[in-house]
Amino acid sequence: MAPSSVRALHYVIKVADRTATVHFLHDVLGMHALRHEEFKQGCKAACNGPYSGMWSKTMMGYDSEDSAFVLELTYNYDVKGYRPGNDHVYFKIRNRVAYTNLEEQGLGHEIEFNVREVRSPDGHVFRVLNEDPTDSGYLASVCLASADLERSVAYWADALGFLEVDRGDDFAVMSAGAGQATLRLTQLPAGTALDRGTGYGRIAFSCPAADLSPLQEEVQARGYRVLTPLVSLETPGKATVQVVILADPDGHEICFVGDEAFRQLSVPDDNAPTLLQRSISLDGSREWLESKQQRQEGAASHKATAAVGAAGAKSAAGSPQAAGAAAAAPAAAAPVAAPKPAAPAAAPAAAAAVAAKSAGK
């Protein structure tokens, strides 16, 4: 059955340039760091994507997670970048100050009167309206693409119990309840396949913990996918939450988390900005990745050069002149094995120190 009550929580975005993205969200759009957490290994529910290494989670928004829809920034220390897809269309923000900031700094462009569209350093699109927030808050809506709008609406309405609150020829707006951020589904042009790339996101909602298992059973009974069956997720020093991860017909990931424990986990941390800036200042992962790539490219170049040389020697040895020379020459010494490339350096100690310090809190 559909959950008895649902609350829209956040949308997860993967960021490769954490420093630039945080600057954009804070200094341009006016969001604040609400929580910052470091993890030594990948999430059991793939919260950080299909990666097993160290990562961080930063919640950013205009108000507390209890009362507003926010963004979750996931940053994988050992991932240099992500390939964008066409699955995420834009975020809609109502904020006069953010609109003025964009205008004064010459960022983005006007797509209609009092609506400015801008792309973040990591490529996510924001539509900023020169308006005061409504009951749904400053971050008012997430727009996702759909390859089959009717199929998508049926999933969100019938399987999850969402309400269709607006409809057009090529879009539908779904809501979990009054006064909440909405989900806008937009039909892709005919013949265009939906591509989630590697930078795909995830939308999160909460519901009573007792509803999680019945929801999972309902979705499975209808033949839809459950990406991660009901599982408990731990955050060092904070509340443990239960989640189930679903996928709609287009593959958009949907997290449902038990509301009771999530309210404990999501209490704003006044120290979050300091923790975030400390992590950024200690992060040496970008330099490590650059060094690793250079080593790999150097090894590949050496291997290619050696292969060309070997091919040339073999060709020369097969000639009549080479055969005669070989017969007259003394036996050659055994070839000396080429030295093996050095093993990749360990992950940056600074990033490890951040994770260790966070885990101890």
From TrEMBL:
CDD domains recorded: GLOD4_C (cd16357)
What protein name applies here?
A: VOC domain-containing protein
Q: Which residues form the VOC domain?
A: 7-131, 138-259
- Keyword Repeat in the entry? The reply is yes
Which PROSITE patterns does this one have?
VOC
UniProt entry keywords in alphabetical sequence? Repeat
Q: Which SUPFAM superfamilies match?
A: Glyoxalase/Bleomycin resistance protein/Dihydroxybiphenyl dioxygenase
State the source organism's domain of life. Eukaryota
Recorded hits in PANTHER family, A to Z, give: GLYOXALASE DOMAIN-CONTAINING PROTEIN 4
Q: What is the lineage of its organism?
A: Eukaryota, Viridiplantae, Chlorophyta, core chlorophytes, Trebouxiophyceae
Q: Where is this region: Disordered?
A: 309-344
Family label: Belongs to the glyoxalase I family.
InterPro entries linked to this entry: GLOD4, GLOD4_C, Glyas_Bleomycin-R_OHBP_Dase, Glyas_Fos-R_dOase_dom, VOC_core
